[in-house]
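sorry to bug you again but im stuck and you know this stuff better than me. what follows is a protein written twice so to speak, once as letters and once as structure tokens for the fold. id like you to explain what the token line says about the fold, in plain words if possible. anything you notice is useful, everything is just below.
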Amino acid sequence: MTEVQREKDYLHPQYRKDRETLNTVMAGNADHLNMAELARLRIRYDGFQGARDIQRDLDGTLKKWNLTEAELFAKTREIHKTETVFTPTWIKKGEDWS
């Protein structure tokens, strides 16, 4: 990494929460929830200048699961067609988001 690259590294506002999520994903297997979380984080950190540890672990998890990014995205698109993988915590019970 050059000095110019180091100066342009940023801390992502969701870093702490994402680090915890990724640690959970890495400790688990390639189930539907973990694949959805991995895909979500891949999208969030694509091209982000910083959080290199997260980006490295995202790559490592794909390799561990023997998946390419394209395969991960294809699988998660299929998952989302047939099921709700998770409900965001910011949605209050009883709210209708349809």
Notes: Residues 49 and 56 are 13 Å apart (CA to CA). The helical segments are 3-7, 15-27, 32-45, 52-64, 69-82.
